[in-house]
Amino acid sequence: MFILTPKPDYKKIETEVLTFWKNKKIFARSISERPESKKFVFYEGPPTANGHPGIHHIIARAYKDIIPRYKTMRGFRVPRQAGWDTHGLPVELEVEKMLGISGKDKIESLTPTKRESIIKFNQLCKENVFKYQKEWERVTERIGYWIDMDNPYITFKNEYIEKLWGIIKIIWSKGFLYQDYKVLPYCFRCGTGLSSHEVAQEFKDKTDTSIFVKFKSASEENTFFLAWTTTPWTLPGNVALAVGKEIKYGKYQLETGKKIILAENLALKILGEKATKIDLFIGADLVGQKYEPIFNIEKTHKDQFTILPGDFVSTSEGSGIVHTAVMYGEDDFALSKKFNLPTIHTVDPKGNFTDQVKKLAGKNIFIANQIIIDDLKQRDLLFKELKITHSYPFCWRCHNPLIYYAKESWFIAMKKLRSQLVSNNEKINWIPAHLKHGRFGNWLDETKDWALSR
């Protein structure tokens, strides 16, 4: 049937093969003619059909086609159900663009009532998400990727959602589901957290004002701990200062008579030549000392406004003393878990200060940065300010700058399963082999609890 000539017409041959497969129902028969008792399970990671298929999708589908075909030739029954991912911001942003609106508030104001607005917006998303379905089906068939597109699973369908809730109930009943906070890159414009993969998509140079702030010692007159930050807006959320236990720190007297504590090897760079060293100690000697809060915001724990040890503290930049706002940094939050520090937000999910921060309530954090700096200057708590240009993450969807923000999340306790996961990995034949104990094995060794509701 398929005759090869010295100058074969590959497009014609491929078309003839595809027609033969379709007319003879070869894909369906490759499943039905294999025994039910010998199944190989394949789960299709579903694409979103509101965007064009790209070359990366074709490459991925070529790889995904190899193993099911191989298993079929080995006599396995390999059902392959297609799927459509119909959730997520890409769809919502496309509809927002179509409507000429931007943001959650505008979505909820499409009709006179919030509920009807959401129903209308959801319906438009459901229609938009299949915008390029026919193109996806055409490309899938043309590249010879065998998958059942007549009976796809669709993630917005109730039967799919109900199955997921059933799985989550099983996870809950086994004690693997719990609620906590997770600090993650967050876009307050879109109102969502981003994965590390998403964050990597858009970095830009951003110029910010970094400041050295004086935190007054609660036990020693005219003495201050010097901390550095590039995010002044996090200062109202401060609950502790962190030092490195083995780092050498010095106490220096300025010409004004004030005494400043900071890392010894950074003193000359920050304080200049006229500061006089009057004492020397290691970070462990500072642990447990108290300081006065720079903002009068109610927090509730005996260890608040205390010097604590942090293994993340370094002297590569800053002052060797780290200002800790537990809701706005991964290291900060880890320290709060270790010392049971208060977890109180001073910034709401829209990126505005809460009513707790009286002078700044309702103001956007980036607008408030300069207000905070001016306030510290007036109270003689600002030691120095510097402009810093650094590579900064932006939201790939709306191109606004991201912040690190603690979101309440549900977690699956994957750490409890670490040893089982590592053991199962030993049974897998990896190609290339180095992935087994390399990239994938290392990832399993560092298994973290999964933030399911991100």
UniProtKB/TrEMBL annotation:
Residues 17-454 form the Aminoacyl-tRNA synthetase class Ia domain. InterPro entries: aa-tRNA-synth_Ia, Ile-tRNA-ligase, Ile-tRNA-ligase_type2, Rossmann-like_a/b/a_fold, Val/Leu/Ile-tRNA-synth_edit. GO terms for cellular component: cytoplasm. One of its GO terms (molecular function) is metal ion binding. Keywords: Aminoacyl-tRNA synthetase, ATP-binding, Cytoplasm, Ligase, Metal-binding, Nucleotide-binding, Protein biosynthesis, Zinc. Its cofactor is Zn(2+). It is found in: Cytoplasm. Belongs to the class-I aminoacyl-tRNA synthetase family. IleS type 2 subfamily. Catalyzes the attachment of isoleucine to tRNA(Ile). As IleRS can inadvertently accommodate and process structurally similar amino acids such as valine, to avoid such errors it has two additional distinct tRNA(Ile)-dependent editing activities. One activity is designated as 'pretransfer' editing and involves the hydrolysis of activated Val-AMP. The other activity is designated 'posttransfer' editing and involves deacylation of mischarged Val-tRNA(Ile). Monomer. This is isoleucine--tRNA ligase.
